[in-house]
UniProtKB/TrEMBL annotation:
Keywords carried by this UniProt record: Membrane, Transmembrane, Transmembrane helix
Protein's UniProt name: Uncharacterized protein
Domain of life: Bacteria
Chain segments annotated as transmembrane: 21-42, 54-81, 102-126, 132-160, 181-200
Organism of provenance: Candidatus Haliotispira prima
């Protein structure tokens, strides 16, 4: 599965390279806007050190809100790419700026801020103590934070597919992460590699936030074949497959036949001139 996921991700990335670059440029623009706001809030000649904490916090909230909206729009675009459909960035932005999408972004940002405060003050509080209970609490905070980070990558792909509310999409992404924990760990590690590679200027436009989002979108796209197969198997066996779900061997080769056919054999000509096919 992982081999095919990388193949589909790479060719989807390459076939829609201009779209990927455009979205990543929007992210760079949002980051530039953040630093412009910080500069505008500067009181004296020095830069970050003289920015009022409250005003810099407002600028950070604006950046977080813009990033959430952009990530939602990117997820909508990635959903079309994963389905081998044309990705129209204007339609994705229009849907991301609808009233319900903006409210969902605000709710998500509030949850992120709340969790960040809980983990920050919790870690600061328990790290000052040296007893066994505090060490146990620190361990729980660490594993909870890691689990939330691993599951968050599935959030936007699930949100745009199922049109869930924010709490339901978060819960579903957590369940998918726990159900596919080894895959979630691998995706987390590979995402860290892609994130670090994105610091190189040319690769920032090729990978960047859009490439990371597409990596998780392709993963969810493939995992849905698994869940559709399990649902069909459960219906055929009148619910008996539910109790043996973890013992079922997923026939990935058979499930992904259509996907492999749609990608097709690729040559050097396909790589250089993808629009010819």
């Amino acid at each position: 599965m992982l081999g095919f996921q990388f193949t589909k991700w790479f060719w989807s990335l390459w076939d829609h390279l201009l779209t990927i670059v455009l979205w990543n440029l929007m992210y760079l623009s949002a980051g530039g806007l953040f630093f412009f706001l910080l500069r505008a809030l500067t009181i004296k000649e020095s830069f970050l050190s003289t920015v009022h904490p409250a005003l810099s916090g407002i600028a950070l909230c604006i950046l977080l809100f813009l990033s959430t909206i952009l990530q939602h729009a990117c997820a909508l675009s990635n959903y079309s790419i994963a389905k081998f459909e044309s990705s129209k960035w204007k339609d994705s932005l229009r849907r991301a700026f609808r009233k319900d999408s903006l409210l969902a972004a605000l709710l998500l940002d509030f949850g992120i801020a709340l969790l960040s405060l809980i983990f920050f003050f919790g870690w600061h509080f328990y790290s000052r103590k040296g007893d066994l209970l505090s060490l146990t609490a620190l361990g729980l905070l660490f594993w909870m934070a890691l689990l939330i980070l691993l599951s968050f990558g599935f959030y936007f792909p699930i949100l745009v597919r199922e049109k869930f509310s924010v709490p339901k999409a978060l819960r579903q992404s957590l369940l998918v992460c726990l159900d596919n924990l080894p895959l979630s760990l691998i995706l987390g590690l590979t995402s860290c590699v892609l994130f670090l590679m994105s610091f190189l200027p040319p690769l920032m436009l090729f990978f960047g936030p859009m490439g990371l989002g597409l990596w998780y979108e392709v993963s969810i796209h493939i995992l849905y074949y698994k869940y559709q197969y399990l649902e069909t198997l459960s219906q055929e066996k009148s619910g008996t497959a539910k109790n043996k779900r973890r013992k079922v061997n997923i026939p990935w080769f058979n499930l992904l036949v259509e996907e492999r056919e749609r990608i097709g054999p690729r040559t050097l000509s396909n790589f250089i001139f993808p629009w010819k096919d």
